[in-house]
Design brief:
alpha+beta; Phosphorylase Kinase, domain 1; 3 domains; six-stranded antiparallel sheet
Amino acid sequence: MSDSSQTLDDFLRVLRASGLVDAGKIDQALAPWMDTEGRLPLGDEPVPEGLIAALIESGQLTPWQVDQLRKGRHKGFVLGKYKLLRLLGAGGMSSVYLAEHATLHHKVAIKVLPVKRVEQSSYLARFEREAQSSARLNHPNIARAFDLESSGAIHFIVLEYIDGTDLYAKVKREGPLDVREVAEYLRQAATGLQYAHDEGLVHRDIKPANLMLDKRGTVKILDMGLALANGDEAGSLTREHDEKVLGTADYLAPEQARDSHKADRRSDVYSLGCSLYFLLVGRAPFANGPLAERLRAHMNEPAPNLLEKRPDVPTAIAELYFRMMEKHPDARPQTAQEVADALAAWLGSTPAGPRPTGRLDPPRRAPRRGSGEGSATPGPRRQPGQVVRSGPGSTSGPLGSSGVLGSGSGSGSLPDSGRSGPESAAPSGVQGLPRIDTSSSPPRKGSATRAGGPPSAPQAKQAKQAKQAVASKAAAADPADEPSRPKIKTSWTDMNVLGLPIVFWILFLAGIGAAVALAIAVLRTRA
């Protein structure tokens, strides 16, 4: 508490200057402390806590507003038509507040550009770009922007308010999430990304903190501040202001780490793969070391083996993760819709239930690509390091034919083709499980393998560990999961009457008849 607001008189002076509460309502709140002549004898005393509680309980002030007032701050509570209620988050680029429309009283989020950034053309241009990008998008999985305004030197964006939490905060609070939860959250995020991509926008800063989960379970993508329109290199910030790296280092695609203007929709897919790892493990895939070291890891190091940290992750999800984390964009699934479709297929093939405490079995295979709705042309020819399926029916599975994710075009989908790192794979003799193709056949012209050549010794060792991990999952699988073949009744003797075969009843009745005949013969002999 600062000196300027330590007494009741000081607090009331700041409160009246703020314009947050009408004068009549202030007097009404002060009534219990007035004397019989309507005077306030406690002016030199500390602010009564009962007064603060009354102002908050009546809805005149919020705790955040009270905190600011008691620090002597009375400016900045009102921006245009909006009254700021509380701070939602702050960073170097902007601060976000919960606000209320002065006359309509609906809640919005106000994103404010710091005054010190206004004079920096790159920040102001990026800020305006975010408003323009968000305003043109209308999708349930993307937070909308309603207006771009300024009040004096303060520039702000009016955004949709999402009552919930971002996925980064959720993991920090609860720890690594359940596989089904993660699959559903990222399915929604990929669907929203596909829409943005279809509108010609690349997000370039996909990360858990930019994925907001509302109280109804809907995921919404935040922060289009780095969004780049396809083909808009001439006007991109990386060109105009020589900002080579834009985005968050822990979730940055290799090509984006080299030069941000080279990012495309497949870069968002890579970032979504990094987010998948974070949500399941609780840390980013390359989180060690300073910024330069992390960027080098994204460009050169194989993706960490997800199954080493989460052995309960099903094969289909592990495969998808490794494909999303490919170093070369051509080796990833090419659209976000492919990611959404693959996750939806897995979610539809596994029953929902309480959070598991043990192993999750891999999902059953989806229909062969090309056989029904959502089918597409097969992916490119298999390259060294690509994940393939061995055994009968190797071209079918949750990830589609030729090891390519289910087809479709959409935001955030993944590019095609193979990996050569610590991918999850099984020995070639294990039917229906992935394996790593390490054949020496050259890749197609124009394609690229990870790190520019065959796997190094550490990569080969990690790949072997991944194989063993998936193989052990297969060995632990419950044989009862295999469908049983129904027995076909081919003989009339198998027909049951009262639970017993007909042959039994025939022999039984014949025996009774013989016994009766014998008894009659004995009686006649005695007579």
